[in-house]
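SUBJECT: protein chain
CONTENTS: sequence, C-alpha cells:
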Amino acid sequence: MSRAFARRFQVATGGRDQMLDLTPQVRETVAASGIREGLVCVFVAHSTAAVSVSEYEPGLMQDVRIVAERIAPQGMEYAHDRLNADDNAHSHLRSLVVGPSVTVPLVSGELTLGTWQRIVLLDFDTHPRTRTVWVQVLGAT
C-alpha cells in the first residue's frame, strides 16, 4: 500500500554560500514515516537557497564559495538588484543553477546515499536567515 508522509523543519543559516548537512533531519523524518521503500524528496522553500547531494567536508565547503562566485559573481550590476533596491540577485541566480530540491531512493528504510554523500543545504543569501525545509517520503511500508 502506497503512502505519503511530509514533515518540515527550520534551519538557521548564516548566508554567504554556507553549506549545512541536512542528512540527520532527513533520516529522522524517514524513520518517523514508517515507509521502507520509495522516494525521499527534500525541498527548500526559499529562492536564495538550494538543496543538493554532496560530500560534506571543510575543503569542499570553501570550494563551493569559489565556484558560486564564478557562476554568479557578487557585485555585478543585476536587474533584480536595481529594480528591487536589493543586493542578492547573485544569490537567486546561484540557487537557480543548483535547484531547490533533491530526490533520493529509499531502500529497506535507508537513504541510498554513497559512502561520502550527504544531503546539503546551500544558503547563497547575503545575510542570516531561517530556512524552511520540507521532506516528503513517498512509498510503501
